[in-house]
Amino acid sequence: MKRTASPLEAPAAAVEPTSGGTRPLRIGVAGLGTVGCGVLELLATNAALLARRAGRPFAVAAVSARDRRRRRAVDVGAFPWRDNPLDLADPGAVDIVVELIGGADGPALALARASLARGLSFVTANKALIAHHGAELAILAEQSGAALRFEAAVAGGIPIVKTVKEGLAANRIDRLHGILNGTANFILSRMEETGAPFAEALAEAQRKGYAEADPSFDIDGVDTAHKTAILASLAFGVPPDMTALTVEGVRHVTDVDIAYARELGYRIKLLGIARLADGRLDQRVHACLVEETEALARVRGAANAIEVHGDFAGPTVIEGLGAGAGPTASAVVADLIEIARGNKGSTFSMPASRLTPLDAVPAAERRGRFYVRLRVVDRIGVMAEIAIALRDSGVSVERLIQRAREDDGSVHLILTTHETSEGAMRGVIESFTAIEAVLDPPLMLRIEPI
Amino acid sequence: MKRTASPLEAPAAAVEPTSGGTRPLRIGVAGLGTVGCGVLELLATNAALLARRAGRPFAVAAVSARDRRRRRAVDVGAFPWRDNPLDLADPGAVDIVVELIGGADGPALALARASLARGLSFVTANKALIAHHGAELAILAEQSGAALRFEAAVAGGIPIVKTVKEGLAANRIDRLHGILNGTANFILSRMEETGAPFAEALAEAQRKGYAEADPSFDIDGVDTAHKTAILASLAFGVPPDMTALTVEGVRHVTDVDIAYARELGYRIKLLGIARLADGRLDQRVHACLVEETEALARVRGAANAIEVHGDFAGPTVIEGLGAGAGPTASAVVADLIEIARGNKGSTFSMPASRLTPLDAVPAAERRGRFYVRLRVVDRIGVMAEIAIALRDSGVSVERLIQRAREDDGSVHLILTTHETSEGAMRGVIESFTAIEAVLDPPLMLRIEPI
Question: Cβ contacts (< 8 Å) between A36 and chain B: which residues?
Fold first, then answer.
């Protein structure tokens, strides 16, 4: 990423002369953390280019954040300040409100409602807000004629919202899945590269600034779930619905799993998955085994990537940087340009009133292949007990690995199954757990795609 | 790709009831080959979905092709027929003209001019037309207020036009490069997988329908050049300019090169490249060595992929199907949906009047690393002559491979250089050619990225 090394001329965007007599589009920015400063930096650095592409210049008309005096990457002293972010929703001073506060509720939601109700266009990077309140806000936007845009809410610099909503709009999409959280992917990649256990890879991610002090949103799958709910809405015409998602994270994935998965020809990735099955919708987030030849298996480090399957376009894969000031600012400002160009369109891929929920696939009915890791006492008869449990649940084993025993007399037993239902697998895991020789709770991971 | 197996109900799109009283958008289709039939099939198969997403239904109001009676994948008998494609440019009967005839000039150009002059929006898959006449047509479109869209002209089902023009619009793009021709990539992939010589891989591509009887547009780089000129216009704000491009194809790449490249950690790919260097623009098409760890090196078979570098977004890679009826129809109909939604925007990433040519980087000044293959007589002193030629041109060798001699007493000598200029390399190649012991004309390929 190339950046201007010189001190930021923050006021440049504000005083950019109008082009061909066109009045600047007045931007109000709420939230001046990493991303907010990235947006201000982008607007200043590329001001002339943006005016050419958008047809008119942007001017930062007002900013708001919790702490005015905090040290920031950008000098915000030249911009008109509002202590209360809600004061940005002022049609007399602002044309577009950019919300970078975060959080599903609180000031972000209040600002969205106030802006859209007053006919101000609203651009946000806030996935929680859109995943929880997207349908309500879209209706507000359509009533007032304002634009509501959120390209930055999913996969940062990757224009996946636009790709699903517009680029692939001619297709009946039957599934999409993506690596949507760079923190989790960084941790899993490091475990694979170095053999480090989870805790060590997490600590490294924290040292490098990829993971926060409290990493639970990233590693427990919540962040990926927000993004998956948004993509599912765009792809399948449903309202975003967090309650429809099954969410698991990556905390339970061990270095042992990474190594065995690799031996079996897989990588372990945290995926957000949404797919149609017989007219019902299956939405979930979990760590799963991905065949090493798949495009997503090769995505390393903090990158993001999404694969979308359309009935006419076939598979499309898009990969890039999913987080950070630069990529997120790129997405936020792309939305500003679209609004400047007059490309309002619907908030989702159709008017909000036409979004229609689909029945969810009950978890027990989901079909797939599975990976199971067991640690068992190495004695005669254990394998028979395991085989019987599988037989009784009607689950067929594809591959089985057993290694020489550890010092403590236990052995790891790794198996993958042929296609079966999650209900059947739950039965298998219960039976395994009841076997006395099984030492730890068994771990089950899904294999994607089936 | 999932398709309806039942006979196509082609008239379905034509009689689709209006949704909410919205009049159908009337489409005129010129050219009913593979892609034209794909568009008709998509409009029929996904009619209800398209109406929901576009806000109104599409109706095929008229079609035109050279031969009405030709056997086609779709029954076109139910659509109003025009013998002369120019008759589609009729505002009384048609809202949007879809041009799938092909060719930079002739009826395609005449139809584009007539449609746009009469205020009819124009959607095309014709890369030659846009590469040669895009700026002129964009001005026509902007004068009449019609939309001119060409998502299908570059990389079929991959929405790369939209990605560069809109998704990454906030970025100063400094380079892009892509695998833009599936035929050439299929041939190079097969050579790599099977060790087959070029002619054999080409024959296989022809048998499988990936290459035409006369494959020159694909394998000589012309098709890739059209697409590169279009992407360069979108990324750098220049008018598309075929005269600014250096174009080489893949005919001269041998199985020997594929094998040595692999040994050195590279794949050979036909790339379209456009990059800024000190405010000048370098546009070219050639086979080159790509490090095997690069995203584009892993693109196999007839797929397409493009990598774009933005100053804030960083690198974005998008991969998918670049040709064929389904992917191309997906792109054409995406353009129709955008027009139905009222997203007109400029034809390129800014109004055509603001497109500004950039100076070209003279070929001799281009910098890069290079691969050279020589066949030489295996006798004392040859290596010294070669080393002296390199020294005299100031070119520094990175790696050198010499193998045991062949039955005819010759040996292959493969070398890669450190960064240097193409001018210096041209001097080296001239000196090599003058050495008596050098048996064949030396082959030089570029290594990308530098």
Answer: none
Collapsing DSSP to helix, strand or coil, A166 comes out as: helix
A267 and A168 in a common domain: yes
Residues of the domain holding B291: 160-322
Same-domain pairing of A16 and A132? yes
Instruction: Decide which of B153, B176, B196 is a domain's last residue.
Output: B153
In chain B, which residue's Cα lies nearest the Cα of A317?
B319
How many separate domains does chain A show? 3
In CATH, what number is assigned to the domain containing residue B220?
Answer: 3.30.360.10
Q: Supply the ipTM of this predicted assembly.
A: 0.93
Give the CATH number of the domain where residue A78 resides: 3.40.50.720
Count CA atoms closer than 13 A to B317's CA, side-chain side.
20
DSSP string, B36-100: HHHHHHHHHHTHHHHHHHHSS-EEEEEEE-S-TTS--SS--TTS-B-SSGGGG--TTT-SEEEE-
Q: State whether B81 and B178 are in the same domain.
A: no
Based on the residue annotation, tell me whether B227 is a catalytic residue of this protein. Answer: yes
Query: Same structural domain for residues A219 and A317?
Result: yes
- Alpha-carbon distance B287 to nearest alpha carbon in chain A (angstroms): 24
Residues of A in contact with B168 (CB under 8 A): 159, 330, 334
H/E element, A257: helix A255-263
For helices A382-393 and A422-434, angle between their N-to-C axes, nearest 10 degrees: 150
Q: Are residues A74 and A171 in the same domain?
A: no
Tens of pLDDT, residue by residue, chain A (450 residues): 334 333 333 333 333 333 445 899 999 999 999 999 999 999 999 999 999 999 999 999 999 999 999 999 999 999 999 999 999 999 999 999 999 999 999 999 999 999 999 999 999 999 999 999 999 999 999 999 999 999 999 999 999 999 999 999 999 999 999 999 999 999 999 999 999 999 999 999 999 999 999 999 999 999 999 999 999 999 999 999 999 999 999 999 999 999 999 999 999 999 999 999 999 999 999 999 999 999 999 999 999 999 999 999 999 999 999 999 999 999 999 999 999 999 877 899 999 999 999 999 999 999 999 999 999 998 889 999 999 999 999 999 999 998 888 888 899 999 999 999 999 999 999 999 999 999 999 999 999 976
Q: Which chain B residue has its CA at the smallest distance from A52's CA? A: B350
Q: Which of A127, A162, A165, A227 is catalytic?
A: A227
Please list every residue in chain A whose beta carbon sits closer than 8 Å to the beta carbon of residue B350: 52-53, 55
